[in-house]
Design a protein that fits this description.
The complex is a heterodimer. By secondary structure, chain A is mainly α. Chain A has helices spanning 6-33, 35-44, 51-74, 78-101, 125-150. In chain B, 62% of the residues lie in helices and 0% in strands.
Chain lengths: 158, 39
């Protein structure tokens, strides 16, 4: 985004931000609808976490996605929302990458019960990695662009 | 350096997700059983 002329960035950035926000809300709600399925998906990643930590992650992460998605889509508290979205996207990319490196056969779990209705290639690890990388790049670019232009929460502009 | 307002907003986003998630999970009959007394 930073490489684009400012007129195009002004048009592209809000569209991308709202689309990513809607994607976060959709992914969060799909996970909330099937909590046990999402817990099973997290367990399959075989992260070095205790059982309680994994359960708490399965309970909290979908709502974090929904709240973050709402800030992105609505434009309210964008500074914090974009930082949270970037952190979440980087986390998703890191978790998917470690699964790929370890050769784990996983179901993404990214869209909860909706994943079953998607074409099978969309749940394959290469596609998930590419999607997570694109998402991380887009959210970091949006956050960088926004914070560079506005400063991190300047009182006179909020 | 993150401004204090941004930091507190991030804390509110995380806190809201924790509170809503734990309460909703507690009320949801299909929720995840968490073996912690406080939850």
């Amino acid at each position: 985004l930073t490489a684009l002329p400012s007129s195009e960035t002004h048009l592209l950035a809000p569209i991308l931000r709202i689309a990513i926000g809607a994607l976060f809300v959709l992914a969060g709600l799909a996970k909330i609808a099937d909590p046990i399925g999402f817990l099973a998906a997290i367990i399959a990643y075989r992260l070095p976490l205790s059982v309680t930590s994994v359960k708490l992650a399965a309970v909290i992460l979908p709502w974090l996605e929904v709240v973050t998605g709402l800030t992105l889509a609505s434009g309210i508290w964008l500074d914090a929302g974009l930082i949270a979205a970037s952190a979440l996207s980087i986390l998703f990319l890191a978790v998917a990458s470690q699964a790929a490196i370890r050769g784990l056969s996983i179901q993404c779990g990214c869209f909860g019960s909706l994943s079953e209705r998607m074409p099978s290639f969309m749940n394959s690890l290469p596609f998930v990695l590419a999607r997570d990388f694109a998402l991380a790049a887009a959210t970091v670019a949006l956050a960088w662009n926004y914070l560079r232009q506005r400063g991190i929460s300047t009182p006179e502009r909020d | 350096m993150m401004a204090p307002r941004t930091f507190w907003r991030l804390a509110v986003i995380l806190g809201a997700a924790v509170v809503i998630g734990v309460v909703y999970n507690r009320l949801n009959p299909n929720g995840i059983p968490i073996d912690l007394i406080i939850f």
